[in-house]
Structure prediction request, 386 residues.
Amino acid sequence: MLIAGAVGLRAQSANDAPANNGKPESDVLIFNDGEKLIGHLERAVGTSVVFKSFMAGEITVDASKIKELHTSGKFAVVGKAVTLRKNVNAPSIPQGPISIVDQKVQLAPTPQMPAQTIPMASTGYIIDENTFTKDILTRPSLFQDWKGSATAGASLVLATQKNRTITSAVSLTRTVPGEDWLQPENRTSLNFNSAYGSLSQPNTPTIKTSLFHADIEQDEYFSPRLYYFGSAAWDHNISQGLDLQQTYGGGIGWTVVKEANEQLDLKSSVDYINQMFNPALQAQATGTIPVAPSPPYSNSLIGSVFSETYSRKLPKTILLSQFLTITPSWNNLDAYTANGGLNLTLPLYKRLGVTIGTIDTFVNNPPSGFKKNSFQFTAGITYSLP
Prediction:
């Protein structure tokens, strides 16, 4: 379909391109039928060539459809057998100005390398020099290349009753290399969400809602789709009598689907779980004082975490994200938990958006007097990182 759209364009000449104002000269792509596009070569993955035309925008073309492609910038041509990791031998990677003619990559000679001709079928990636240097040769610091979003929401009612609610969420991910289309080496993710509320009126105890979830995970890839990971998570929910649940473990993850507009991950781990319950929290959650509250107690558990995360970019740059986690305990079959959530982020202005979502948390073994299920509906303003 992309090819059909491109063929429908009239041929562009070099005079069609905007003035470069000191920028690199334009690249020229010529199809087998003679149609021509002027723009810049973005990259190639296998035999799929991504070209950004001044007129048609970004298109993806199979090398078999290309008669000639001539570039002005420098590119690195990475073979199929080469794994792009931090120990890659950069001098062994052919680099320089390239042309693609009859499904062959022709590298112009440079002071460091002679001219070369490489079949497209033998290439893994063709990467522009800046991206190759930034994402492959130069390793980002711990504070670079984070992507994600931060969301905040609040409501306030001041009348006979005073009702305050504050919600917040932060989701951050850092993948090395930073380009989504490159084979990942490792990934770090941080997540936090919280909700706090209070309801008060004269001569009546204040009713409170307080819960939070925080987690951190480090993934190390041993193939493009498989990775092992270590993780830690912390949960608090006074509405379920849960003072603090700590989860520490590690396991295996599988990226089942990874496309430009969607990703699906499945994970399984073995974990140590410590649950600390406090029945006295019922006083804050209900505004009543139990006649004889039980003392705090804890459970030390060995269990597993089975989880699924899914994200999809919908039309109009709307983002859908969803997760589901089930945590059985193997040494106490009654002490299992589960939680799931769904978020929809709609663009508002530049990096600002509106997020509406739900989170459902289930604890099978709360103290007496507490419900097993906790449901949240949230809405707030979201700021997305570039």
